[in-house]
């Protein structure tokens, strides 16, 4: 899955979807994940980085991560295949 | 570059919670820097805020209501022109456009230019004709059914599912979830705006709008899409943001090219979850949020003035995405003398 190209992500976690005009606020973890996605990292690569950096077990991470991905899908922030 | 000296008469000074485009239009041409302007305000009500905004208009005249017809309109314009020597007239209210259009020749004889859609263009985009318009130009339009009487309401096709939109021919739109609500809205809207009242299928999605200007030859001089961010209880945008939606721009360009639209317009569209666009209304003039386009890099009022003067205008090809407008209310302190003048003399 590829994030939409005209998604503007600021360092503060403010995200602007230029197609719909919607904007969103992310916490630092959400911002980190979205930045990885924007840079084209795959789910497994993101998981690896996050598990290495934070004190979180794989099951808990998967649960929260895929919930976050579903939220991004819900808001139509991925390119449509 | 030398500035062009112009006297421009502008209506739609009602900067209220249901704002007209007059004041933002004046603001745009004043800020353009290309003109030496004398602005004449045309008002219908004594309390239109633009009457009292001294930095916007040089002088304001009351106008007869459009329902009084062409003769009354032309008599008043003739009087105002004898005092002010108007170069261009910019009508900004839907209800007055028809009268101005059918007076174009007489206005021209007085030396007054306009830049308006043709009567054919104006007629075929009427809400009651929109379905035919959609079919003719290949644009998705929700089905609609004009009603002029209580009896007509019983004739609404059975396959029109609730909720339905009930719309006035010029202004006003309400959602109805059952026949009783259709009746209520019909009574209110027809009392204020007359008939027909239009029953339109409800399309679920996000409301998005495009402001655009056509040169009458099929070219789009400018177009900026916007999503309303804050909508008042009258359905008016109180905040909005420019968006990067190429489909909306393409739809606008195709429409202007097919119709050879002349003048300003606002397309009201619903974007569905499946990324389909339904045209729900075409307003035959620049909208009240026109200053957002100016802020985003397209001074469409300036372009319109040049085209009214018969000059060639280079089309705008870009605009800033993510520019926002946020409206605000502001209390002006007004001398009773001004109110008295406009009330008693019809000019101030």
What topology emerges from the helices and strands here?
The complex is a heterodimer of chains A (81) and B (348).
Chain A: E1 7-9, E2 14-17, E3 23-25, H1 28-38, H2 43-53, H3 58-74
Antiparallel strand pairs in A: 1-2, 2-3
Chain B: E1 4-11, H1 22-32, E2 35-43, E3 59-62, H2 70-84, E4 88-90, H3 94-102, H4 104-109, H5 119-124, H6 130-137, E5 144-147, H7 150-153, E6 164-167, E7 173-176, H8 179-193, E8 197-201, E9 206-215, E10 220-231, E11 237-242, H9 246-259, E12 262-271, E13 277-283, H10 290-295, H11 300-308, E14 324-326, H12 336-344
Parallel strand pairs in B: 1-2, 1-4, 2-3
Antiparallel strand pairs in B: 5-8, 6-7, 6-8, 9-10, 9-12, 10-11, 11-14, 12-13
Helix pairs in contact in B: 1-11
Any overview of this molecule?
The complex is a heterodimer of chains A (81) and B (348). By secondary structure, chain A is an alpha+beta fold. Chain A has one domain (7-74). Chain A is 48% helix and 12% strand. Chain A is built from three helices and three strands. Chain A has a three-stranded antiparallel beta sheet, with helices on one face. The N and C termini of chain A lie close together (8 Å). The model of chain A has no long low-confidence stretch (mean pLDDT 94). Chain B is of the alpha+beta class. Among the domains of chain B are: 4-114 and 332-344, Rossmann fold, CATH 3.40.50.20; 143-201, ATP-grasp fold, A domain (Dna Ligase, domain 1). Chain B has twelve helices and 14 strands. Chain B has a six-stranded antiparallel beta sheet. The longest helix of chain B has 15 residues, at 70-84. Chain B is globular and about 60 Å long. The mean pLDDT of chain B is 94. Chain A binds chain B through residues 6, 8, 16, 18-22, 80, and chain B through 206, 208, 226-227, 229, 240-245, 275, 321-322.
């Amino acid at each position: 899955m590829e994030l939409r190209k005209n998604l503007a992500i600021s360092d503060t976690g403010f995200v602007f979807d230029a197609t719909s005009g919607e904007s969103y606020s992310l916490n630092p973890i959400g911002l980190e994940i979205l930045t990885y996605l924007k840079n084209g990292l795959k789910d497994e690569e993101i998981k690896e980085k996050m598990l290495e950096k934070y004190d979180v077990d794989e099951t808990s991470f998967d649960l929260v991560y895929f919930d976050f991905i579903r939220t991004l899908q819900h808001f139509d922030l991925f390119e449509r295949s | 570059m030398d500035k062009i000296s112009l006297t421009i008469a502008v209506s739609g000074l009602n900067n209220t919670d249901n704002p007209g485009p007059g004041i933002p239009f004046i603001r745009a041409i004043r800020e353009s820097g290309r003109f030496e302007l004398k602005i004449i305000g045309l008002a219908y009500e004594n309390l239109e805020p633009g009457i009292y905004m001294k930095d916007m208009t040089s002088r304001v005249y009351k106008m007869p209501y459009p329902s009084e017809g062409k003769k009354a309109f032309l008599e008043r314009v003739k009087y105002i022109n004898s005092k002010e020597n108007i170069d261009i007239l910019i009508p900004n209210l839907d209800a007055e456009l028809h009268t101005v259009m059918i007076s174009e020749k007489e206005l021209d004889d007085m030396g007054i230019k306009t830049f308006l859609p043709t009567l054919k263009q104006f007629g075929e985009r009427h809400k009651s004709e929109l379905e035919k318009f959609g079919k003719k130009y290949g644009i998705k339009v929700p089905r609609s059914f004009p009603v002029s009487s209580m009896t007509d309401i019983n004739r609404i096709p059975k396959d029109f599912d609730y909720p339905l939109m009930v719309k006035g021919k010029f202004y006003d739109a309400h959602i109805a979830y059952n026949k009783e609500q259709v009746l209520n809205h019909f009574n209110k809207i027809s009392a204020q705006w007359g008939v027909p009242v239009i029953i339109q299928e409800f399309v679920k999605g996000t409301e998005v709008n495009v402001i655009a200007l056509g040169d009458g030859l099929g070219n789009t001089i400018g177009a900026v899409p916007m999503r309303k961010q804050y909508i008042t209880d009258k359905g008016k945008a109180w905040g909005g943001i420019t968006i990067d939606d190429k489909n909306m721009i393409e739809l606008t360009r195709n429409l202007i090219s097919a119709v050879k639209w002349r003048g300003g317009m606002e397309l009201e569209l619903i974007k569905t979850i499946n990324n389909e666009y339904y045209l729900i209304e075409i307003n035959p003039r620049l909208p009240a949020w026109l200053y957002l386009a100016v802020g985003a890099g397209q001074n469409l009022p300036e372009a319109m003035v040049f085209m009214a003067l018969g000059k060639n205008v280079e089309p705008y090809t870009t605009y800033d995405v993510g520019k926002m407008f946020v409206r605000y209310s502001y209390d002006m302190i007004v001398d009773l003398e001004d109110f008295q003048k406009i009330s008693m003399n019809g000019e101030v």
